[in-house]
Structure formats: structure tokens, C-alpha cells
């Protein structure tokens, strides 16, 4: 944002409790890289909100979600419609006020007993430090265990030593019904086994309750990998070559990493500038379980990344390779962001696919390698599978090899 506009903006005056901090917050938004239009909209909403608080005699530490909701409802009536982004602007303002120490963060609501919250926090540290799990997985496991302990303890004091095998079986029977998917039910029992191994490791229990967690009925290796057809992959990559906007350059590089190198969505998000060795031509990938693996960097993939870094990546102190294309220019947050990029890219390329996520490109690479004659061991090494079973399922899509080992149909074909 140019200096002339910064100077004009600094002379603006607003009323209300936010007036002393308006200039600093305005500079904060400018430093994040918001455009002129976005910056004007956000500061206008903040000024309007400050005047609204002042008319009601509310200070910065005296308003809560109910006041914000009332302001938004009143704003919709005044402007005949709800202004886009008001909730986001107010949430961002609240975060900035807390980070700068203007207001204090609210105390945690007493939804859990202190013993339960302490136990869950210790369990999270164990999953992160000892098991090396990712933050989303840790939060998922913690949610399962919070619901289990709340149900079993029934509001009483947390005593892990009193939990019996029958308590676990009854809970799984109630919370893994037949109408749930196999994966969802399996996540429940996996989290329970993990928690009881942690509890025994820390001497909170003396018996091996992890062994008493029942298994969820299911059959392994039943599904077929949903690989994107090879022709669709080629169309997608060819179409992405023509995208010259900053977001288009970023998305083209991400698609190549998925389709040519087979990275997972999370691995792309965690990729940092120091992980690329341009001289030797390889990537250092931060995979599952905190494992770092070097992978060769194909020429076209490296060229796409270099073009994005030169012509598309916004100026930022963040060391992650791929950033948001709009302010604030920080890192992509979750694997779903990569999946959304792939889905939008397929639509932009004129393809209507039933399954169009980031993992479908990884599956497509494995299928293509298999059809080129590479062994399952080589494919597993390329995709960094922790277990041979994860690679073995691709044998089901190699129809030519299956025909060679198929037994003849007895009698005449129907």
C-alpha cells in the first residue's frame, strides 16, 4: 500500500473505545498486504463498531459474542442486508487486541473438570512428543477420549483405575453402531487403545486395558484406490500450465507435486524454503511420524516452484513455500485447503469428476508406476508407505497381472 494512502488514512478520526488503537490496527492491516478496497472495508466496519460500542457505553473489556451479534443484526437493518465479512473482521480485531495486550483473553469456560483437562493436556503432549502425531490427529484423538471419559466418569472424579473392561465394551457398543462407517468406528477404538497405552505407560492404570478394547468388524483391503484417470491428470496439468496469475502459478506447482512426486497434502503444507536443494535437485519431505525423506525433484516440478517463488509468491517472512493468495499472506492451514485447490482446478479445466481430491492424484501416480512395470516395493518407497499393506492394495488395479493369475471360469460363461 502506497505511502500517500497511509498518510491519508492516518488522519482519519473515529469515535468510541477503539479510537486510541485505530491507527495501530490500520497499520497492522496494511502490513498484512490487504488491498485498498479490502482495507477500506475493514477499517470502516471497525469504526462503525467502535461508534456502536460508544453509544451503548461499552468498553473494550465489556463486550462479548452477544454484543457482536447485536451489532451485526443492527448493521443488517441499517444497510438493508448483511455486510459481507463483518463476523470475520470482528474476530480478527478481537485477536489483535488480545495479542497486543489491549484486552485480556477470557478464561477457559469450566466445561471440563480440572483433572480431566490436565489428563487430556498430558495425553496431547505424549502424542506430540513421544508418538510424533500431527496436530489435527492429536485433536481428533483428544476429542474421542474426552467423550469417553465424560461418559464413563459421569461427572464424578476422574479415576482411571476404576475403569473396567466392561465399561469399554459397553461404550464401544453404544458409540460404534452399525450405521456408522467402518473408518469412523475404527477411529474410536484406535484412540481408546492409544489412550490406555499412554495411561499404563504413566502408571495411571496397572492392567493392560488397551488389549480389552474390542475390534470393529470389517475387512481389510476391500476398497479399490480411487485414482484419477491418467487422461484426466494430463488434461489437468496441461490446463494448469496456462494459469499465469499468482494463485494459478501456485496451484500449478502444487498439482505437479501431487501428480509427479506423490506428496501428501499435509507434506505440501509443511514444505519450507530450506527443504529444497536446488543444487542437488531434491526435496526434503516431512512425512508421517516426523520422518524426513529426500525425494528427487523432477525438472518440470522444480521449474514450476521456481516460477511461483519468483513471480507469484507474495512477500512474507513466513518460510513455508506455499502461501495464501490473498491477505493475510500466511501459510495454508489444513489439508482441506489443498483438496479445495484440486477440486477448483478440475472444474476450471472443464472436468466433472465424482472424486477429485488431492489423494486421487497420489493414487494416479501409483497406478501409473505399476503399469510401467515398477514393483510394489519400489512404489512403496516412492510414496513413503510405512507398511507393505498400504502398497499392496494397488495390485487390485493392475488388471493385466490379475488376468494372468485368474482361474478359468468353470463351464460356459453366462
Protein traits:
mainly alpha; three-stranded antiparallel β-sheet; 414 residues; DNA polymerase, domain 1; 3 strands; hpI Integrase, Chain A; 3 domains; single chain; 18 helices; disordered N terminus; globular
Number of strands: 3
CATH fold-level topology of the largest domain: hpI Integrase, Chain A
- Elements, N to C (H/E): HHHHHHHHHHHHEEEHHHHHH
CATH level-two architecture of the largest domain: Orthogonal Bundle
Average pLDDT value? 83
Calculate Rg over CA atoms.
27 Å
Strand content: under 5%
Strand order of the largest sheet: 1-2-3
Backbone shape: globular
Residue stretches low in confidence (pLDDT < 50, at least 5 long) are 3-11, 108-112
The CATH homologous superfamily of the largest domain is termed: Intergrase catalytic core
Structural class: mainly alpha
The number of helical runs is 18
